[in-house]
Amino acid sequence: MPGKRILVLRPEELSSDDHKMWREIRAECGAPANPFLDPEFTAAVGRVRPGARVAVLQQDGSPVGFFPHERGPLGQGRAVGLGVSDSQGAVLRPGIRLDARRLLAACALSSWEFDNLEAGQGLFLPYAVEESASPVVDLDGGFERYARRLRVNSPSSLRQTLAKERKLARQVGEVRFEYDARDPDALRALMRWKSAQYRRTGRRDRFAQEWITRLVELLADGDEPECRGVLSVLYAADRPVAAHFGLRSRTVLSWWFPAYDRAYGRYSPGLVLLLRMLEAAAADGIRTVDLGSGAARYKESFKTRDLRVHEGAVVRARPGGAAYRLAREPARAARRFVRGRPRLAGAAARTLEELGRLRTR
């Protein structure tokens, strides 16, 4: 179309003006300032994933949209950081009309897969095959207002968590919390605990993948206000007993990698850390803590509402698109079948846990 073109660049080829425009367009859309959809996250992924690209949509020479993605064999594409990214999609100026398959063709992609597409992504929503809840905690009114709501909606959760914290202090030693810790040893401990949890529950160990470990380390060292890592650590007797590494913008904190030392499991240190982190985040200007998709009892207890996220793929009629369907669609259909049947889902979870126990013996 006259006056319009699409450039496909590596993330490091984007200029500071491109980053500025990216953020301005996100703000114009009224979308939450989710750090996973900030250009800094794409830039960090680009440093550890050689297939990372950004399609820059231009109109009369000015950017009107950005589409971060990764390109693999046969042009099979995926969301940037797929597998660890909690919010995905394109960044488009309001009113921009675009066809998803034509965008993929301009990027030399035969398919584009997503598993945490944010709500409001009209370009890709028609290709979603599954919708799930992503619980969030609203802190707009401050922590005390949230705590009052928690006392009404989930009084036992708050009461028991505070009691466990007091018990931890009595039986182990002084409890100390750091919201934004610069403690490389605690970060390494967190990754060990999380790896053990993945293996124990029969799930893929994300930290066994070098690019994910490198990505976390890069973000931990970053200082970009719109997307930087935050390591929160709960100490007892000056020893880390629980930790969380997440991403934050100025107003949104994403709950990303939480874990705890199982030797202290009877004190529920992960819940104590979450409560302390919510209090510190509210004081630091965070308005929303996104707990991420995936069912968990504690999320239901602490959330204030749910966002909707989507899973699916845009597939073109190309050899790479056919290869994608053959490789991915049967597994996705099987997951949907299991998730839609609670008893079967419970049995599957127990099987995974048993396999995990066998692996770790």
From TrEMBL:
Pfam family, any one: Acetyltransf_6
Q: Which organism is it from?
A: Streptomyces glaucus
The protein, known as: GNAT family N-acetyltransferase
Q: Which residues form the BioF2-like acetyltransferase domain?
A: 156-300
Please give the superkingdom of this protein's source.
Bacteria
